[in-house]
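Run: sequence + protoporphyrin IX containing FE -> complex structure.
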Amino acid sequence: MKKITFNITCSILFGLPDGDLKDELLKDFTLTVKGVWAIPLDFPGTVFHTAIQARQRLCQKLSTMVRTRKKQEDEGNVDTEDDNIVSCLLALRDENGQPLLEDEIIDVFLSLIMASHDTTAILLTLFVRHLSRDPEVSSKVIEEQNEVLKAMKENGGKLTWSEIQMMKYTWRVAQELMRVNPPMLGSFRLVTKDITFDGYHIPKGWQIFWVAPGTHMDNNIFKDPEKFDPSRFENSSKAFPPYTYVPFGAGPRVCAGIEFARVETLLIIHHLVTKYSWTEMIPDEPIIREPMPYPAMGLPIKLYPKN
Ligand code: HEM
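>> structure
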């Protein structure tokens, strides 16, 4: 799943063709991310040192890409159909009319890859795992996706925006999966003024970490929080109180890729359930958090093509 979502991000956001470069980027990116959570000891053999080296290789490759793109644009060699985020970042000007530095473009690039591919891969993995364990939910998802197939046939075989809008139950399952196991546990906020919350004084300048399970598993907000129940999301008018359902965060810094993640998840699940069935190879494989939730052994499955 990580490879699929990485490839999608690289193709759609950055216009990279399939091939060795994407594979090398994914390898170095995976090593770099491991360093984020490692003890910062920078000498040969440590996870941190390997991560630093991988990041340097990544930056070199991204720098070549950015320069090549800039050269093509300067020479007028780019088809506007090929527009991607690198072009947008190259075109950006600050309040003084200055372009972004190459390092800034590379940082945005890395942040976007980080924000987009692991999170969606986790949601998809949890989805695959759940469908193999919950026959009732699984048959409803398959039923909905078979309806989508019928609509596609009438539409000349194309999967368009209107078919995506038909995938309501499938998305509710995704929402419930993210309630129980949010891919991102939470995020940091800087306290900008002294406040008192629930009897605790929190001084200005502190970094605080909000956590999604704090509200996702609160019985006063989500009745029977341990129960897996996609119907909680059936009635959008019966919305939950603000800032309580927060797999994508909330407020001004809410996830910028919610719709991207929704469409990507629904498309992949559509192709999976209409073309394959599967069984887990390791029964009762647990979910571990390091710190993102992932099946402990990577969820090996046996895939069976459908006729
Ligand atoms: C299931 C998939 C995803 C989940 C669960 C998720 C979750 C989150 C969360 C919790 C935040 C932090 C919000 C906050 O601090 O309040 C965030 C931020 C962000 N996400 Fe996502 N995300 C997903 C997919 C994506 C995708 C596909 C993209 C890009 C295509 C993306 C781009 C971003 C960006 C750019 C930010 C930073 C927004 C900002 O600070 O202004 N995310 N995401």
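>> summary
Residues 102-133 form the longest helix (32 residues). The longest strand covers residues 186-190.
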